[in-house]
Amino acid sequence: MTKIIAVTACPSGVAHTYMAAEALERAAKAKGWECKVETQGSIGIENELTPDDISAASIVILTKDIGIKHEERFQGKTIVRVNISDAVKRADTILEKISAHLTQAA
């Protein structure tokens, strides 16, 4: 099973952070993928990714509108950087592109 992880964060740290997390989780579930999303919002880090989550992941999705805290923990992983608005509005498209990449890499 494909496992992806993501970290979402937006400049205001409110709505888009959580909307992006929900959209990515929903799109991954529709593909039959396992997905865990850490949010870095106005109230801090929630649903924090564990070392096991990170090591098991095929792909890491990071939003790029604001700096992600503790990004160094993803060193050596394949990272896809997306705009927060794309994660909210086009999560399905993002995961299709990732799927194509994983298929080519296999």
What are its keywords?
five-stranded mixed beta sheet; kinase activity; PTS_IIB_fruc; about 40% helix; globular; Bacterial_PTS_Sugar_Transport; Rossmann fold
Please describe what this structure looks like.
The protein has 106 residues and is of the alpha/beta class. The chain has a single domain (3-105), classed as Rossmann fold (3-Layer(aba) Sandwich). The chain has four helices and five strands, in the order βαββαββαα. It has a five-stranded mixed beta sheet. Pfam families: PTS_IIB. Residues 4-100 form the PTS EIIB type-2 domain. Keywords: Kinase, Phosphoprotein, Phosphotransferase system, Sugar transport, Transferase, Transport.
Quickly name the level 1 CATH class.
Answer: Alpha Beta
User: What is the typical, i.e. mean, pLDDT?
Assistant: 95
State the distance separating the first and last CA atoms: 13 Å
Tally of DSSP β-strands: 5
CATH architecture classification: 3-Layer(aba) Sandwich
